[in-house]
Amino acid sequence: MDLDKLLETSDSCIHDEPPACTSCCPVHMDVIAFVGEMEKGDFDKAYKVMEKRVPFARIIGSICDHPCEKVCVRSDSGGTVKISELEKAAVSYGFSPPKNTIPLSKSKGRVAVIGGGISGMTAAFELDKKGYQVTLYEKSDRLGGRIWDYEGIALKKEVIEEEIAALVKQGIKTELNTLINKKRLEELAGEYDAVYLGTGVWEEELKIHPETFQVGDTSVFAGGKLANNNDSVIFSASSGRRAAASVDRYVKKISLSASREREGSFETPLKYETEGIEPVEAIGKASDIYSEDEAIGEAGRCLKCRCRKCIESCSHLTRFNISPKSYMRQINQNERIILGTHYANKMINSCTMCGLCREECFKGISMKAVIKETRESMVRRGKMPVSDHDFALKDMKFSNSKYFSMVRNQGEKAEYLFYPGCQLPASYPEYIGKIYKYLVSNMSGGAGIYLGCCGAPADWAGRQDLMQENIEIIKKTWEDTGRPVFILACSSCCSVFEKYLPEIAFVSLWEIFARKGLPQNNRISGKRVLSVHDACATRHNKEIHDSIRRIATLSGYEIQELKYSKEKTKCCGYGGLVYFANREQSADFVKHRIEESDNDLLVYCAMCKDLLAEGGKRTFHILDLIFAEDMERAALRKMPTLSERHGNRAQVKIGLLREIWGEEPDMDYEKQRDFKLIIPENVRQQMEDRYILSEDMAEVIDSSRKSGERFFNPQENSCLARLRLDNVTYWVKYEEKDEKILVKSVYSHRMEIVEE
Amino acid sequence: MNEDKNYNMPWLCDKCKRELVLKKVKVRYLEGNFEVDLPKCPECNMVFIDEEMAVGKMLEVEKELEGK
Ligand code: SF4
Ligand code: SF4
Ligand code: SF4
Ligand SMILES: [Zn+2]
Q1: Is residue A89 part of a domain?
Q2: Which of A320, A373, A413, A599 is geometrically suited to a Cys-Cys bond with A482, CB 3.0 to 4.6 A?
């Protein structure tokens, strides 16, 4: 697996990108965390969040010119979030003086800072914190510069004085009433390791680098108004901080420009979709400053912009609470481990490979493609947990065995070959013959029938070996029957044929019904409404989408579309073999889908029908609309058990052979046994949960009765027998009642017990 | 070796009509090989696994080994 490509894809996911406000903010205040605390009413914590990024938070927080608000995504839905007002509220209700820290030894070097305004104070503070001995030169008799313009307006005199005093107390030397000119600057540059110039005006034009703030290639750095050419308070503070970082690099003799792309204000790659957002008007303030309640209300308007599009629509990403970005990083980890536990296996086998994420993502990131590659790589490296897909693969083997698989033509050569797939005959055995007869009488050119499994389970399980083998068999059958057009009735078959058998032309059965008309008049009276749950495997097949709706209309139904339909449809929870690898995950898909609408659902995939009905939803298969005799029963009809599915397939083959071709099948599907099984409901459930088939159970009992190898419990008059079939040992507890056998419990394990 | 009879054990080997005894038994799955005390028939060596063990501890170990 190409892990570099994987990480590249991971990098392109914008889930972790900052919101517009934070990236625009020159000091990158974490707005989401800030409003998050405020929304909870925790003003202390909100202030702490602000203090982390905003220098002199008590001052700047009160006077910031808030460029962030201009880009706020809320602007068209009720107005920008008033971040600056919230900051003022945080200062008022959440400020606490910083804890006294032990001063560092100032041994890194000596720096002169010229100008005691916002940028100079910020640079001095930052450099002092980094361990430099700082001397601050100010031409007037006090520090603060423009800050004093806000005295009595947004700031109290005492607050300004306290903040300045705190700076001085840190150990910064101040030289007040000291005017520095060009000549003196040159001298200072010689005396100090570096100089920061933040005087607002200067006697000559300076060549200031826009990212490093270095003046030419000298040891002088300049910020504030000199560099920004504007009056912005926050840009001033930001330039002071960034120049301080440059000074530090300069003194340490490391690259001034390396990896500083995202300093200062930048445009975030995050594209937050505003479609469908409820407008909420900004909260007004009753006085100068928001009350606590007003602030809490305003904080609640923030959308916490973050790309979660795919996560919100996917039950899998929701269950694992993970973004594709970190998902792919975890896969990368999982792929690299040689010894030790592969923690991501369970997650990887819980993706239904439905492809919805790609439809939702404007970057086109497809977890389906990633998961497919990953599973194939796991299989190749022998790291795929066998038990996750074993049952489904055995089921596929059954469908391609003599118990189900067959090819029969209509006459010598037919133009069409009906391929119903493996699940439709398992769920709806009674419809197959009816469909075939319809095709025979409607398709000029004739139609044969071909029973088998297209290989979708192998594809999902990452078993390319089995997949290719299966594809070759289908191809050969196609050749042998004179290259007919396939008629497909299963969406998974359609996607397999599209991908692996492009040379075979196919048409969906639904298109034929829609075009040629319905075989019998099942038109209902009155207006009944259905919502279509489209199959995820054919999310891009418009002909199928249209045909299904056409058949429903012909049958007298009105369609109300679901939010997630057609190319944006959701998976029922069967896809990717998740039903076998993680039943709870599968149930999430069912649940979320059912909650989407109160209408009865209309589906056209047997597994969708079975899972949704199993989840308690009234669901019709499109064939019910055409053939069902009792619609009420059809709506709630539960899925046949795993054992019944085998039986149904075999019966379909037997029935067709007898009825249409007058042949007696050469198979012994229902082996003659000298006993009859009685399976109580609780055992039936055990069999479903533990993937145990009645045919295997019967084999265990039969073998133990013949060999005598079993345990006996005289107290409860029970026998317990075991038999290893392939890679699983099955255990059956039973009681013999003449020719009847009452099964009391069944279980299995994969471990091998050495009996010696 | 533990040759004690497993007294709470109501199951007998039906073929040999013998009571089961707890013995060290070899168990293997994938790359894992273990020895566990399990009830077995002292004559024909048939090993007894009960439901709780199969769907509990054994399943857990199987899953663990499959994740390696
Ligand atoms: S809605 Fe919130 S997170 Fe989004 S840009 Fe506005 S303030 Fe920032
Ligand atoms: S393929 Fe489907 S189940 Fe998998 S992550 Fe994407 S949307 Fe979710
Ligand atoms: S939609 Fe999902 S995969 Fe795409 S960028 Fe957003 S979080 Fe990442
Ligand atoms: Zn014995």
Answers
A1: no
A2: A413
Which numbered ligand comes closest to the C-alpha of A370?
A: 2
Domain residues for A123? 109-252
What pLDDT digit, counting tens, does each position of A683-713 carry?
A: 999 999 999 999 999 999 999 999 999 999 9
CB-based contact B49 A722, cutoff 8 Å: yes
Question: Which A residues 327-346 touch B at CB under 8 Å?
Answer: 339-343, 345
Q: What are phi and psi of A364, to 5 degrees?
A: 70, 25
Cα A589 vs. chain centroid, distance in angstroms? 13
User: Above 90 in pLDDT, residue A106?
Assistant: no
- The pTM of this model reads 0.88
* Ligand 2 pocket, residue A353 CB under 6 Å: yes
pLDDT over 80 (residue B7): no
Place of tokens 């889908």: A593
- CA-to-CA dists, residue A123 to A128, A153, A173, angstroms: 8, 26, 13
Give the ipTM.
Answer: 0.94
Shared domain check, A499 and A579: no
Touching check for B16 and chain A: CB below 8 Å?
Answer: no
Q: Assess A242–B contact: CB distance below 8 Å, yes or no.
A: no
A340 or A177: which leads in pLDDT: A177
For the sheet containing A173-175, what is the strand order?
A: A173-175, A132-137, A109-114, A194-197, A220-222
Domain co-membership, A484 together with A565: no
Q: Does A630 touch chain B (CB under 8 A)?
A: no
Listed by number, the residues of chain A in 24-83 with a beta carbon closer than 8 Å to a beta carbon of chain B are none
| Integer angstrom CA distances of residue A98 from A58, A167, A349, A739 | 11, 12, 50, 86
Contact B61 A339 (CB under 8 A): no
CA B12 to ligand 4 center in whole angstroms: 8
Tell me: do A591 and A702 sit in the same domain: no
pLDDT digits (tens, 9 = 90+) for A491-537: 999 999 999 999 999 999 999 999 999 987 777 776 799 999 999 99
Quick check: B10 and A715 CB within 8 A?
yes
3-class SS of residue A114: strand
Domain total for chain A?
5
Assess A675–B contact: CB distance below 8 Å, yes or no.
Answer: no
pLDDT computed for residue A98 by the predictor: 79
